[in-house]
Structures are given as structure tokens and as C-alpha cells.
Amino acid sequence: MTTFASALRLCGLSQQDAATFFDVRLDTVKSWSANRNPVPDGVWQMLADLWRRIEDAADTASVDEAIADPRSRMNCSADDMDGLPGGAVEAAGAMALLVALGDSIKD
Description:
mainly alpha; 66% helix; 0% strand
């Protein structure tokens, strides 16, 4: 798996989600994912910004319910989730759950 494909996965984006998010054709994302064409710097910057937004959403998520039932969807505020594409909401929820579980183990 290429670095770009891994970054998409970490952000919860399918290739179709990424094409929509970057406003490019699906074939373009597939080409970047397969390492056939270089990923433009601006696209990397957009992914980095998305990752920061996912982290911010994860920081504000309510994880009590998710710890009780890990199959539940995270309760993140609408402001934090506003505009997150595709599976990024789920990525934020998963990140928040894992951090909370890790913190609960430390306690």
C-alpha cells in the first residue's frame, strides 16, 4: 500500500470520497494511490488539514457511551464534524475511542 493510500485510509476516505474531497476525477485518485503519478503538494496539505480536523473532533468526542458499547457511533459535536468528508467522522470516533480506552487503562 502506498503512503497516499494509507493516508486516505487513516482519514477514513474511500477513493471516491477522496475524489469528491479533492474535486478531482476518481481516476486521478486511483493514479495517486497506485503511485503512477505524484501527489501534488496541495493535496498533501489538504490531507494534513483534514487529519488535524479529525484529531480536533476526536478530542471533543463524548466517549463514555462508546466505551460501554464500542459498536456505537461516537457522539461528537456538530461543529467539530461539520464538513468532514466520507468516513472521516468514523475515523474521528475511532480515534477518540482508542485514546479514551488507552487512558482508562493507565488509570
